[in-house]
Amino acid sequence: MSLVTELILNADSEARYPAPKEIRIYQDFVKTGDQRIRIAKVLAENEQRIVQNGSARFWERCPNTPSNCGNDRKTASCQRDQGWYVRLIAYSILAGSERPLEEIGTVGIKEMYNNLEIPIRNITECMRCLKEEAMSLMSEEDATEVAPYFDLIIHSLS
Amino acid sequence: MQDAITTLINSSDTQGKYLDNSSLERLQNYFHSGELRAKAAMTISANAATIVTRTTAKSLLYTDITAPGGNMYTCRRYAACVRDMDYFLRYATYAMLAGDPSILDERVLNGLRETYNSLGVPVGATVRAVQAMKEVTTEMLGAEAGKEMSLYFDHICTGLG
């Protein structure tokens, strides 16, 4: 789901055309299209760096954690998940909506990690580290666009 | 429903990938055409009743369909026809804003031909009316936005045919 689909479905649920206010929101969204594409590219090109540097930061703050337990397979699958979150955030930036991130990655996130026996506090800290790392790669303007999506993951873990 | 953005996201996600360059280029084209789409939607929204009136006048009014025995004879049927024209216009506008026809398939065309057949609504005349609506809308919006809307009017016709 994107901002565009959301707006259309809202209008359709009342059998009307999009209201002036909604059209203005749409216009503001498409106007920022180039910025959105730029951010998505930065995230795509730097996913590995965000995950690697983010992990290093995370292990400093939280050394006793599954991704740092010496089991390479665990480390790899934790870092793969972290990379996925970076990708989902890129989708959400392009869609102008938290819905892709929610639909794919945050609905059920706590239950999943509980089931995997990964401490929620650790993942939360890890997400903070990824956020800091991602934001450090961008201008202030772009970082402001990205931060709320990391915060959404962090909130959905709490 | 899907839109120009979600179709690209969904197909990337099933592969676990970021959007590749050709997807990003398509997205960029969509973003750049956004202002045109927004303006077209506003114009149609402000003139929907006029468009439907002109469309009916152009394609249906002076044909056998409105005479006794025709499927638009009786005010009740006439009103139902005008309501459907309204729907076509509104959903084509949604699809144009979305840059994707899926909402037409899901919310207009799914089962429509069968419904029309069972009600005795002639599909040929409906298609002619949608084509007329395309012309009326293009006249009002200008060539560029008209062309974009035409994609979705044609999609309706193909779905009915």
- What series of H and E elements makes up the topology of chain A? HHHHHHHHH
**Helix-and-strand structural type of chain B:** mainly alpha
The poorly predicted ranges of chain B are: none
Work out the strand percent of chain B: under 5%
- The helicity of chain B comes to over 70%
Structural class of chain A: mainly alpha
What is Rg of chain A?
A: 17 Å
Low-confidence stretches of chain A: none
**Quick one: overall form of chain A?**
elongated
Strand count of chain B: 0
Distance between the termini of chain A: 24 Å
Helix content of chain A: over 70%
The two chains with the largest interface, and their residue counts, are: A-B, 37 and 37 residues
- Content of β-strand of chain A: under 5%
In short:
The complex is a heterodimer of chains A (158) and B (161). Chain A has 158 residues and is mainly α. In chain A, 79% of the residues lie in helices and 0% in strands.
Walkthrough of the structure:
- The complex is a heterodimer of chains A (158) and B (161).
- With 158 residues, chain A is an all-alpha fold.
- Chain A has helices spanning 3-13, 20-31, 33-45, 47-61, 72-95, 99-106, 109-115, 120-136, 140-157.
- In chain A, helix 4 (47-61) packs across helix 5, helix 6 (99-106) runs parallel beside helix 9 (140-157) and helix 8 runs antiparallel to helix 9.
- The longest helix of chain A is centred in the middle third of the chain and has 24 residues, at 72-95.
- Chain A is elongated and about 60 Å long.
- The model of chain A has no long low-confidence stretch (mean pLDDT 97).
- By secondary structure, chain B is an all-alpha fold.
- Chain B is 78% helix and 0% strand.
- Chain B is elongated.
- The chains are: A mainly alpha (158), B mainly alpha (161).
- Chain A binds chain B through residues 1-2, 4-5, 7-9, 11-12, 15, 17-18, 20, 23, 26-27, 29-31, 33-34, 36-37, 40-41, 43-44, 47, 84, 87, 90-91, 94-96, 100, 104, and chain B through 1-6, 8-9, 12-13, 16-19, 24, 27-28, 30-32, 34-35, 37-38, 41-42, 44-45, 48, 90, 93-94, 97-99, 103, 107.
